[in-house]
Design a protein that fits this description.
This protein is an alpha/beta fold. Helix content is 54%, strand content 9%. It is built from 20 helices and 11 strands. Strand 10 (466-469) and strand 11 (477-480) form a beta hairpin. Helix 8 runs antiparallel to helix 15 (322-352) and helix 16 (358-364) packs antiparallel against helix 17 (376-385). The model has no long low-confidence stretch (mean pLDDT 95).
């Protein structure tokens, strides 16, 4: 490499597939940034630099030259496939970087892997940062929502760089220092889990409007466009209208009718549910969205059941107010999904020792990311006013919104059940709300069953202590030293 490129770039990107290339272009377009780029296959680097000479990339064919092109403290963002590929790049950089340099993993890594990597790299004096980046290919190019973890010291260098490329929402860059080690990737995981729930709820709203409401896709697109002007305004509502308007060029049919109804998953939704279970946090809205995709991807089981079903319920008769009911049910269910997601963030922060500001997380999700929506401002306000609320459903704005839509929510779920339309998202959200709102739950009976067959003990409502009934004996009650779970 020429001496003129030594220490020239203030930021580097390793991995130049679509996300890495777009992120590199975004970085290069911002004043003050000079971007070094490197890819294992040099042809991809040549393609990027050849197609975008205006970016002024500092391109290297060898990793040593890439490292040399970075000014100190060196900062490099890795945009390669999560797993072994990420570890291979990390190892190469660690061998060449010095104390104070920064390695950023911008992929969809499991936060537990990020914690382990940071712990392994920390003794070298090199900062390792796991950064969640949301917004897909367009976001990477035009401005994503960025959720970096890592040390506060590393953020002093990294923060201004990330702020230069992040989406802007109401004058504020959609980036904040989330917390130490794996906090950034944890919050990104929860974001993706909420995204699963949001998409499932919107799909259920579409199904209800079509199957029960009798509307065609183009007409439903118009409904969604109207919704996008009000309290349901969001990126996902906006693009849903676009998808529903699309007509297949080959057949002339609505695009949605020629797409196979089997939805895939990349795993982050599953991770959210698994980790929420480990944390003891109920995230039924997210879980049902994950399970709904799993059900859709079981064609043999679906065909088997359909072969033995002789009749299906007829769609209930509804009037013009049905679409309004569905919009209110959708909003209430979305509130529950977001509330569950933030519950998981709170629990994760407590377990792993992260100081996560919930209001800042809501604000950085207002732009760039897939779940960006108007009501994230309301979530930010709720946590700003009272950071210690037990649940978002307690916040006055959301309590009032759910109360206002509750009757419609119940009508929609009941209509769906009577019409044979599956609404696992709407239904689980309503059950969760009812569980929180009920003064007494049947868990008392479950505890009795557990004590009967396994002596798992129970607590009483009228006195302190842990108890066990001698079910196989005289059925008298004894107080125990154990704990009831």
């Amino acid at each position: 490499m020429s001496e003129s490129t030594v220490g020239k770039a203030n930021i580097g990107v390793v991995g130049l597939a679509v996300m890495g290339s777009n992120l590199s272009r975004n970085l290069a377009s911002r004043e003050g940034n000079t971007v070094a780029v490197f890819n294992r296959t040099f042809a991809r680097t040549e393609t990027l630099t050849g197609e975008h000479p205006e970016a002024g990339f500092v391109a290297s064919e060898a990793i040593d030259d890439f490292v040399a092109s970075l000014k100190k403290p060196r900062t490099a963002i890795i945009m390669v496939q999560a797993g072994a590929g990420t570890d291979a790049v990390i190892d190469e950089l660690v061998q060449r970087f010095e104390p104070g340099d920064i390695i950023v993993d911008g992929g969809n890594a499991n936060f537990q892997d990020t914690i382990a990597r940071e712990k392994r790299i920390s003794p070298t004096g090199i900062h390792f940062v796991g950064a969640g980046i949301s917004g897909g290919e367009e976001g990477a190019l035009k401005g994503p929502s960025i959720m970096p973890g890592g040390s506060a010291e590393s953020y002093e260098t990294l923060g201004p760089i990330l702020a230069s490329i992040a989406a802007i929402a109401e004058g504020e860059p959609c980036v904040t220092h989330v917390g130490t080690d794996g906090a950034g990737h944890f919050v990104k995981m929860i974001h993706n889990g909420i995204e699963y729930a949001d998409m499932q709820l919107i799909a259920e709203a579409y199904d209800l409007l079509r199957t029960v409401g009798g509307l065609e896709p183009a007409a439903i697109a118009d409904v969604f466009s109207e919704w996008n002007k009000g309290y349901l305004e969001s990126y996902l509502i906006e693009i849903t209208a676009e998808v529903l308007r699309q007509v297949d060029a080959k057949t002339g049919k609505p695009f949605v009718d020629i797409v196979l109804d089997e939805a895939g998953s990349k795993g982050t939704g599953v991770w959210t549910v698994q980790n929420a279970l480990d944390l003891g946090i109920p995230v039924g809205g997210i879980a049902e969205a994950v399970f709904a995709r799993a059900v859709s991807s079981k064609p043999n089981q679906r065909a088997a059941v359909q072969s033995v079903v002789t009749a299906r319920p007829e769609a209930q008769k509804v009037d013009a107010s049905f679409a309004d009911d569905v919009s209110k049910a959708l909003y209430a269910s979305k509130v529950v999904a977001y509330a569950q997601g933030f519950d998981a963030i709170i629990a994760g922060a407590e377990k792993y020792g992260w100081n996560i500001n919930k209001d800042k997380i809501a604000k950085i999700w207002r732009g760039g990311c897939i779940i960006r929506a108007q009501f994230l401002n309301r979530i930010a306000d709720a946590y700003d006013e009272n950071p210690d609320i037990a649940t978002l459903l307690e916040a006055p704005y959301f309590a009032d919104a759910v109360a206002e839509g509750e009757a419609a929510w119940r009508r929609v779920v009941a209509t769906a059940a009577l019409s044979g339309v599956p609404v696992p998202g709407f239904g689980s959200a309503l059950s969760y709300y009812d569980s929180l709102a009920s003064k007494r739950l049947p868990a008392a009976l479950v505890q009795g069953q557990r004590d009967f067959f396994g002596a798992h003990t129970y607590k009483r409502v009228d006195e302190d202590g842990v108890f066990h009934t001698l079910w196989s004996g005289d059925r008298s009650e004894i107080q125990t030293a154990g704990s009831s779970h």
